[in-house]
Every structure is written in structure tokens, then in C-alpha cells.
Amino acid sequence: MRVMRIESIEAIPLRRELDERIAIAQKWISSRQYCLIKVETVEGITGWGECWGPVAGNREIIEEYVTPWIEGKDVRNIEQIHDDLVFKLTGSYHSYTPASVVSGVDIALWDAYGKSLGAPVSELLGGRRRDRVRAYATGHFWTDADDFEMLKGRIVDEAKGHVDAGFDALKNKIGFQRHPDFPWGWKEDVELVRAIREAVGDDIRLMTDANHAYDSATARRVGKRLEDLGVYWFEEPVRPHAIDNYESLNSELDTPLAGGECWAFEHEFARVLDAAAVGITQPDVTSAGGLTSTRRVATLSDAYNVQCVPHVFGSAIALGASLQVLATIPGDPMLEFDRTPNPIREDLAVDPITNDGNSVPIPDSPGIGVEIDPDVLDSFRMT
Ligand SMILES: [Mg+2]
């Protein structure tokens, strides 16, 4: 019987300072950093993956825990490796399972498996339903500004730029009250969305994301006003653990809630879906448990008649892997297309993925369809 043994697995930390820091409700973002995963097989195939979050933690778990366990296993047994790793990590860490580690390993295994067969991962995940996917522009982050009017004007100009570039769906950030450097509140949040709506018109699909900034009362207050602005979804209004809040808000508001970037594995999404707590699920391939779990969540979401629209905010690896699963998702998913300046996302792939109007072609080259430029990789590597 043919086998494809894993010879080595390596965590590769990348980091790049941003020219201008950007903010969301939770924090400033002044650099972009990623823990990439490189798997090599005895047969000479290389697979790439990516873990969500800081390098710290991901790298150590890979090096000290995953490496001695995974070497020699057969890449083709991806789902078994995924499930066994979840079991082992849960047993070791008790109160949480490092899902970003599982994700990075899982993506790298799918990439290697696809390359070994000369097939895109989307074919191995059950087949492609589409060769292009509608993209929405994510951005509209907050930057240093003297006052709200200055920031609002800058964000409205950015929105118009995305529309000029061909996008017909946009997402912005709200939740000023949680950030100490932005002394505004929910009224300014609503005013910002209103200003974008007025600037781009009613034909543009508009989503807004609070990055779990609100308590339940403020979320309801804001959500009621977003209805009048025709907002397509209201993302992460409250903290991810507050499933009961999600459930009540999702039933009370006309605007559906979206969430999932802070949830992992199909069992967490099952709880959310069973509670009818969101109208859109947003698993991230780099944090929800890789392509295996994201595909499972998409299938589960479809069973509950809920659209899955994966969260994407990573390097070229995350973007490529997300496109492969997007090819397979039932219904009418969109690609979250990060438009913030990010050299690691833009330069790491030999053929960068770009939008063509409001859609993005899904690569059909082997694996996740991303060829890494080794010189660029080295230039971003953390020492
Ligand atoms: Mg979000």
C-alpha cells in the first residue's frame, strides 16, 4: 500500500512592522506576525500551513509537542491526525485546546496531500461548486486622528476607494467605547456606518464588525439602528462566550448576527447553531481547526440552513487555504478580502491573489495553490 510519511514539521515565525498602526475595538495592530507550518514528506513533498495568533505558543507547541508525535505518520490520514491531535492537546491543556496549532498542521497536511496527487485541495474536500467567489473588502480600521470627523472622513474615503476598485460589499469596524484611545461611543459607531452608507449608496452590501466590544444592552441599541441602515450582518456584537446574548439578539434584530472567528471546532459551532445564535458562521481556517474543521462547520451550518462565510485575516497561506474551502461551501459564500497594507500577505506568494472586480478566481493548481517565494519568506523571518 502506498504511504506518504511525514519526515519533518517546522514552525516558521514571520513578522513585519506596519508603516502605520491600525486599531479595532480590542487593540492597536502595529505589526503583522504569523507562525507558518512547513511539513515535508519522505517522498519530497512540501506542504504549508498557518496558525492564527501570536507566534508565541504556536511555535513552542509545534516544536516540543507536535514534532515528536507526528513524524512518521501518513499524511493521507489527515482527519485521523486532526482528531487525534485535538484529543491529545485537550488532554494536555485541560481548560483549552490550542486550536491554532491544530489548524496550521491540518492546512499543511492538506497542501502536501493535494500536491502529492497533483490536485487542488478543493477537489479533495468533496469537489468545487465554483471557480470564482464574490469578495468583500475588509478594512476601514481606525488610525490616529485628532477627532471623530477626521477619522470618519478618512474611513469614508477608504470605502469609496474599495468601490472604485470593483468591490460591491464592504465591512467596517465599530465599538469605539472599548478602546481607550478613541473617546467615542455607540452614537459615533452608528454615525460612522451611516456616513459610509450615504457615501457608497444603497446598492453596496455593507457589514459591520464590533469585535465583541459591547454589553448586551448596547449591542441591542446599536443593532436596532443598523437595521435602518440596511446592514447585511452585525458581526461579533458581544463576547464570544455569551451565546445566550447572541441567541436573544439574533432573534430580536432584523439584521442577522455573524460570528465564529473566536470559536473553534465543530462542537462549538454545533452549540451556536443549535441555539440559532447567528445567521452567518465565520470559522477561520487558521484558528477553527484547519480545513478539516472549517469544512465540517460549513456542512453543519448548511444543515441548519445558515450560510458559512469564513473569516480571513492572514498571510497568503491563509488566503489560499480559505479559497480552497470556499470553492466547496454550499450556498452563496463570500471571501473576506483583507485590504489593509500587509507586505507578508502581498509579497509572500509568487502569484499574489487579487480581485477582479468584486470576485476572486480560485486557484486550481495542486494543494492550496500558493507557491511561496523563499527569498521573501527569509526576509520576513523572525530571528
Ligand atoms: Mg471580525
TrEMBL record:
<dbReference type="InterPro" id="IPR029065">
    <property type="entry name" value="Enolase_C-like"/>
</dbReference>
<dbReference type="GO" id="GO:0016829">
    <property type="term" value="F:lyase activity"/>
</dbReference>
<protein>
    <submittedName>
        <fullName>Mandelate racemase/muconate lactonizing enzyme family protein</fullName>
    </submittedName>
</protein>
<feature type="domain" description="Mandelate racemase/muconate lactonizing enzyme C-terminal">
    <location>
        <begin position="152"/>
        <end position="256"/>
    </location>
</feature>
<dbReference type="InterPro" id="IPR013341">
    <property type="entry name" value="Mandelate_racemase_N_dom"/>
</dbReference>
<dbReference type="InterPro" id="IPR013342">
    <property type="entry name" value="Mandelate_racemase_C"/>
</dbReference>
<dbReference type="InterPro" id="IPR029017">
    <property type="entry name" value="Enolase-like_N"/>
</dbReference>
<dbReference type="InterPro" id="IPR036849">
    <property type="entry name" value="Enolase-like_C_sf"/>
</dbReference>
<dbReference type="InterPro" id="IPR034593">
    <property type="entry name" value="DgoD-like"/>
</dbReference>
<dbReference type="Pfam" id="PF13378">
    <property type="entry name" value="MR_MLE_C"/>
</dbReference>
<dbReference type="Pfam" id="PF02746">
    <property type="entry name" value="MR_MLE_N"/>
</dbReference>
<keyword id="KW-0456">Lyase</keyword>
